[in-house]
Amino acid sequence: MYPWPSLVTVLALLMYFVVTINVGRARAKYGVKPPAMSGNPEFECVVRVQQNTLEQLIIFLPALWIFSLFINEIWAASVGAVWILGRILYAWGYYQAPEKRFVGFGMASLATMALLGGSLFGTVMTAVSSFQ
């Protein structure tokens, strides 16, 4: 049933939903009318958090699930929780000042690399063992 990676998936999507709402709030706060995506530097930081999180979700979610299927769902969920924490720290830091985003970005990037590496290892080992 995979409850733990499912929970991590829902939490990751909720986190993304919050950063998306923050874009709307920033539009109102800084007077940036749609479809404009630039103008106020603080608004641009909020938009970058949302866009970068979307870019990272595309890699994170499949890696989380492939790792869950071929390695271990508890480990996948644990690494996924680190990814979420890293993305929250990234957003919080970026909202304060762009140079404060690196700790969160590093945490999330390492979690992504662990999930990707484990996914590759697990799928290759499964494929190799199917030939024997």
TrEMBL record:
Keyword Magnesium belongs to the record: no
GO CC terms, sorted: membrane
UniProt GO molecular function: glutathione peroxidase activity; glutathione transferase activity
Protein name, per record: MAPEG family protein
Gene3D superfamilies to which the protein is assigned, alphabetical: Membrane associated eicosanoid/glutathione metabolism-like domain
Transmembrane intervals: 6-24, 57-85, 105-128
Example GO BP: leukotriene metabolic process
Keywords: Membrane, Transmembrane, Transmembrane helix
Organism this protein belongs to: Planktothricoides raciborskii GIHE-MW2
Membrane topology: Multi-pass membrane protein
Lineage: superkingdom: Bacteria
Family annotation (InterPro entries): MAPEG, MAPEG-like_dom_sf, Membr-assoc_MAPEG
Localization annotation: Membrane
One Pfam family hit: MAPEG
